[in-house]
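Human: I would love a firmer grasp of how sequence relates to backbone shape in proteins. Could you go through the record with me and say what the backbone is doing? Here is the record:
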Amino acid sequence: MTRHGAKRGWYGKLVGAALGVTVLAAGASVWTAQAGPVGSPSSHASASATPGSDVMPVDVTIAHASDKGERGVNITIDDGPDPVWTPQVLDVLRENGVKATFCMVGPQAQAHPDLVKKVVAAGHRLCDHTVSHDTAMDTKSQAFQSQQILDAERMITEASGGLRPMYYRAPGGAFTPYSRKLAASRGMRPLGWNVDTKDFERPGADAIVATVERELPGGPTLLFHDAGGDRSQTVEALRRVLPWLKEQGRSFGFPVR
């Protein structure tokens, strides 16, 4: 998994002042953070949780597989919703008959509830991608991790009209045993990825498509973005990648829960 360090500045400007969050450089490796024993969420962990929700805990391990089996593929879209790019991504998905998982940043969902509702109405799934998209979350306190995960869960749930996120994706893959246990206790399966398209770096649609074609044998979960800047290359790449995946005999599904 890759840490997207460039994204910290974009979200820091968006929500840093309001939240009083100091964004730090990434510390321990993602895989080290994922490897330790799973701890129990402390008592403050439920403070921001959605009141009265009927939550069924899920597996704490990081999901990569598709519910469509070995030939399945999962399209995941991070960092939105965005008023310019999310509608275009939704259009491409609709044109190809594809459902995706949208990993939303809490304040973005709160600012654009109409888009969250459109995502839900189209049959896509929601994923909690924290409040401030801090890719150094695995170096922060449990209190900070709880605030980031649970406040985003609340924002997304409220914006959707009551539908809760089904997954939790740590920014940059910065999971910890604690954050995985907390998310799973709230019914959100920790969600990884296998193919990082690097579309956030805007390498060109050709390069994004080539990355998918090259790395798809490594696993079924593909990472794209619909926010954080000009995502026209992502939209164009999806227009080409989705039909290509169908030609390869792939079925579009959701990450396992």
